[in-house]
Design the sequence.
């Protein structure tokens, strides 16, 4: 074990250790904010590019809106401001000056500005200018931006005061079309989460008390972390006419009548990186899915004799050239030749902790046999994890190899999710007993069934649910789309004949 | 003329008209901030990608640093805070609450936070943790981010309170290496400005009073707008040990002694888009260089008879497929088929105002002859601007055609720059006379030599220059690298035996 803590003994510390060991991010001197370092930011860039392509394919265009929102904009939508008021950074002055040798804020603003926690209000203001007629609809836009929510217990990637995200915003002529958009983008999220991030997810609708402030319906994808807790990985909101009414997004419809547009919004953030860590990392450090790895293959020269330097570097260049002809996942392959002045053993462990999918240490022995020593991060410390094969075989099989790793990462996580949703808890009493135990790290072999983490079962929809859930320190993650239609005891309240199937879980 | 104002009659209004007509950006309800709309943002994305590639090729990695900087960080570097104190957005509270039915800021922060005007101070703080030994150097990073400077007279792209940029930050073991880095990045800026944005630039060093606050030396690229004013298009700063000392970026050198690192920073911003508009746009609207055009070719179906719809769309798909085999500038070609429910004439003028490099209107006549009608934006309203050629010829020549447009745009701007730097003004008196006239729009034929805009001539380096320049409403844009070494009368002060060659100009 490379890390100071492993998943079983101290999961939160292990998480922090992985981030440090992989050098992905660090806490900043700016309170509650993080510095995203090159390896972490490189992963975010890959995630961004994959989503961005899908957004374009579904007809969305990128824009950029101001990060400062006039305070009065929040006065317009009551639910919205109530949801965010407690965590807003407020700009009140526009310069600094000296006072008794100390710098102090000067020039108070006429109206305070909020650093966007999300941009519905300011974007709705633009939409109200852009949209006059049904011919102007739909408007389909997205922005990649930083946002601020004043978290009191910040954690790298999961909850930081500033984070990076994308927020899609659309406006439509009908409720039906807007609902379809909301669900289409949820499907994009599911697709990318599962196929690019190797994050299996549950999809569904949020209960009333978990909705986005101002939304009619919030849909979500939910992933399971290795400690059995849920992580909300993306949300898509049908906003009805709520924001359209408060910002006056109205249009003349085909019948010449004025009506309000229907809007949607949807977002994923750097929080996904936290989810990837807690899904794929192990006790040696990070493991990055090949599709989002900044580098998929690391080539490390092993030079025992200075005289061999040129020969080895030439051979590495040959390996690189040979690999460069290949396009795993229909993209250019991403290779790093690590020529830093460090021992090859140190380099190997550094890239192992970072979770680069494939590491090749290349020395004279390889050259003599036209071979490559190939180590796969996912199979670290297993006999199959190290192969010595011909350059030809390595190179021609690289697409398949990376695809296999990607697939294997997904399947492992999928198995964990599938095996850890309890459906056998049928009564309020069993349910209470179950969640009064502490959730622990989920063993891979699932030998101890007490470690299961999600409960799928009945809910009555009781309006007092929020309080009851708080007492058990759990949440309703979602109301899955695949409802069984059966009746049973509400696990939360004990009420009979509850009809709604929900996913109960502890959460991040 | 499409626009309400042309360049000669009202240049500032013309600039605003171009942005509106091309639908690139608009003023926001958030005071002094802009909304960057899809066409403007698409251009920015292209610019970003081209720079980003160059930064990687020169060894830099992307990171992300917090946008909030503790106020105390600015106390550390006196010049730096003095330079920025008057234009800082200050966050003082972390929530909103109701007071007499009105939303008001609550929860004052222990220490106010500054929304970054630039990130030297917060990045230096991280560098001080990352750098311990000469082995940790150099550190070469970049970030793409939003920054805030509280402009009192905002103008779209040129001066907005929030803008987008990249800021590179590096740390080195020696002054020489840091100076080399500074100049290397200046060269990257020149290269991209000239070869991708078709913006010819002058390069040089800033005089003392124009330096970045806290820098030892600031280098810059300067472009000439069509009204003869200069636009600073990018800057690269050698910061010496100034920020290293204030943030304690020290390292143990090869001799085991502790010393301060040498740092650099360099940036370009969305302001470049303002420069591109004012260099290339004409009285019909925007003209975008092919390398940074979100779409290089627009295909517009011209359907006179509904029965022809399918035939025409099939033919357009064929044109697209044929073009897609080509890779101008070694990249995928960017084509837009405009199928919106609008007249083809309206579409043509819309894309003309947006400045798409090539527009093809495709109807039955083209199908019958396997032809394409090709219109080049740059040659609008000229006989050569419209060609009817075979699909084959169009497609096989597309790389060359786009390269020619790119080249022609650069050469036109380069000619304007070269022909409008006066070098014949030799005395303080001539100089005063010259700048007491108003600079007008530069005629393409240069028939009126009073329209010239930059003056290259002598400067004594007098410390009171700032005041004298202000009186004339001009600035010293740079001290060009190619100094003549001759002596002459200082154009600004009249002092004899001045040795420094500088570029004097009005500026944005």
Sequence:
């Amino acid at each position: 074990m490379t890390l100071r803590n492993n998943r079983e003994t101290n999961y939160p510390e292990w998480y922090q250790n992985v981030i440090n060991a992989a050098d992905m991010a660090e806490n900043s001197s700016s309170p509650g904010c993080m510095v995203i370092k090159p390896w972490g930011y490189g992963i975010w860039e890959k995630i961004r590019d994959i989503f961005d392509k899908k957004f374009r394919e579904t007809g969305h265009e990128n824009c950029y809106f101001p990060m400062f929102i006039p305070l009065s904009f929040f006065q317009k939508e009551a639910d919205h401001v109530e949801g965010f008021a407690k965590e807003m950074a407020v700009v009140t002055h526009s310069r600094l000056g000296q006072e008794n040798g100390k710098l102090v804020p000067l020039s108070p603003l006429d109206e305070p500005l909020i650093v966007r926690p999300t941009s519905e209000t300011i974007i709705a203001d633009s939409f109200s200018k852009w949209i006059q007629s049904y011919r102007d609809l739909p408007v389909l836009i997205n922005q990649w931006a930083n946002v601020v929510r004043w978290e009191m217990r910040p954690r790298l990637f999961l909850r930081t005061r500033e984070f990076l995200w994308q927020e899609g915003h659309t406006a439509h002529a009908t409720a039906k079309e807007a609902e379809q958009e909301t669900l289409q983008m949820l499907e994009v999220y599911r697709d990318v989460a599962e196929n690019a991030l190797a994050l299996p997810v549950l999809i569904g609708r949020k209960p009333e008390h978990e909705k986005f402030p101002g939304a009619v319906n919030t849909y979500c994808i939910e992933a399971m972390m290795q400690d059995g807790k849920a992580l909300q990985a993306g949300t898509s909101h049908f906003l009805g006419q709520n924001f359209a009414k408060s910002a006056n997004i109205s249009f003349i419809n085909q019948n010449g009548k004025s009506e309000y547009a229907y809007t949607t919004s949807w977002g994923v953030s750097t929080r996904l990186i936290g989810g990837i860590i807690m899904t794929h990392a192990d006790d040696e450090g990070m493991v990055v899915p090949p599709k989002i790895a900044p580098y998929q293959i690391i080539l490390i020269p092993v030079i025992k004799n200075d005289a061999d330097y040129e020969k080895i570097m030439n051979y590495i260049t040959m390996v690189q050239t040979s690999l460069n002809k290949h396009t795993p996942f229909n993209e250019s392959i991403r290779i790093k030749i690590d020529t830093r002045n460090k021992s090859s053993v140190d380099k190997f462990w550094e890239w192992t902790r970072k979770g680069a999918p494939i590491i090749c240490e290349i020395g004279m022995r390889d050259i003599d046999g036209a071979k490559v020593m190939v180590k796969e991060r996912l199979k670290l410390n297993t006999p199959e994890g190290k192969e010595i094969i011909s350059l030809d075989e390595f190179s021609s099989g690289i697409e398949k190899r990376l695809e296999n790793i990607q697939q294997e990462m997904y399947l492992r996580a999928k198995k964990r999710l599938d095996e850890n949703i309890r459906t056998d808890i049928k009564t309020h009493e069993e349910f209470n007993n179950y969640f009064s135990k502490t959730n622990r790290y989920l063993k891979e072999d699932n030998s101890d069934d007490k470690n299961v983490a999600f409960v799928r079962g009945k809910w009555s929809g009781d309006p007092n649910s929020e309080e009851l859930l708080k007492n058990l320190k759990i949440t309703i993650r979602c109301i899955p789309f695949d409802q069984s239609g059966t009746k049973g005891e509400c696990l939360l309240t004990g009420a009979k004949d509850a009809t709604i199937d929900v996913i109960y879980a502890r959460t991040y």
Notes: DSSP finds 15 helices and 23 strands in chain B. Chain B has a mean pLDDT of 94.
